[in-house]
């Protein structure tokens, strides 16, 4: 090990009766890219908050360049050269790129007014340093999610950071945007800046990082070089058990045709046709913007469409999500936090939100029935919670996703549409989600699964429909699956 840029010794953090960090000892080597890994709830977020000055430790020490420091707030962290690129940054949409970067530090002229000329110059010089091209005067509200993330990176760098923490930085980025981020991180690495990189994506870890530190249940259980440990060993350290087969595909013979779609056309897709059988997983592949989510939106009644839809041999037309739900077509959306859950409500209310079975014929809530169904679903899906009355915002990402699944299972769906069902959740939770999907397949539910993770799609699907520029570029049978075939169709189109 080389010289430590930042080190924690016996770091402890308690929230009431919850012991979130238990005597953590970690050292992040100067100028290295170090992965910080662990399942949701392992303590990663707590550690990041402490290093960022958002939370205070209960005990222990933090050292910068071998000297003990006290990080009492985010400004103190920035003073010591620690900057964080948060997964969900707090940004002001109504002001410019430059104003967001230098908020609280805007250059002033002799009259005490903001010197916008100097602000633009500072921002442009900063962008040149790391080869980012944005308009300093553009409002943040006019930027894409990826561009707003670049602004957050620029803000972090503007503090002359010695240590930059990236918290799930690619969760909302396209493949091309991820490449840009890689280049920026490598550039920072070459400048001797220490990077702490938090991600659930193993490929990113092995592509970018030289070191890895693993937390499990609030303790550090591994610290070492990434090239000295296999992916399987790394995952075993994270989850505390052998994962076995990461993608537990249930091999069953698909049943009768449950859904047939002919010439589906909306504002975003054109002449898309496919069928879905009971117990089949139909994967939807394609580049970001190819029309995958738009197909799901039309099927679920969010977007109006033309074309034919046949469910259980009966012609139907879906004009709203309520109508889709009533006919047994349900959607687990990509953004579970804003679209799949009411985060301020408890598990019980979230699960029971769409199930009208809980209402008495006179309109009164049948609470006993509700509680039993909710309790059964919590047990069936292994939702880790102290009770059904836990606020869903306090659950890990994986357990939140299980609640979304549970909500729809009260409706006994015929067709379940999954849009990026494992995005932003750890490997252990992913395996549990795959097992749930396998159970639903065994129950005869037809599943349409959209995923940007090619290994996931190949492993879980029976057939894969490849979208390209709003059209169906081809449908590939399982026997013909390969990344080359799918990428080729996504880029060039053709038949398969």
How is the topology of this model organized?
Blueprint: E1 4-15, E2 18-29, E3 33-37, H1 44-52, E4 59-64, E5 67-69, H2 74-79, E6 82-85, H3 97-101, H4 116-129, H5 145-158, E7 163-167, H6 175-190, E8 194-198, H7 202-208, E9 211-216, E10 219-225, H8 231-239, E11 257-265, E12 272-277, E13 281-285, H9 292-299, E14 306-311, E15 314-316, H10 321-326, E16 329-332, H11 336-340, H12 347-351, H13 367-380, H14 397-409, E17 415-419, H15 427-442, E18 446-450, H16 454-460, E19 463-468, E20 471-477, H17 483-492
Q: How would you summarize this macromolecular structure in one to three sentences?
A:
The protein has helices at residues 44-52, 74-79, 97-101, 116-129, 145-158, 175-190, 202-208, 231-239, 292-299, 321-326, 336-340, 347-351, 367-380, 397-409, 427-442, 454-460, 483-492, and strands at 4-15, 18-29, 33-37, 59-64, 67-69, 82-85, 163-167, 194-198, 211-216, 219-225, 257-265, 272-277, 281-285, 306-311, 314-316, 329-332, 415-419, 446-450, 463-468, 471-477. The protein is α/β, with parallel strands linked by helices and 496 residues long. The radius of gyration is 24 Å and the shape is globular.
Count of extended strands: 20
Helix content: 25-40%
- The radius of gyration over CA amounts to 24 Å
How far apart are the termini?
51 Å
Structural domain count: 2
What's the level 1 CATH class of the largest domain? Alpha Beta
SS-derived structural category: alpha/beta
CATH architecture of the largest domain: 3-Layer(aba) Sandwich
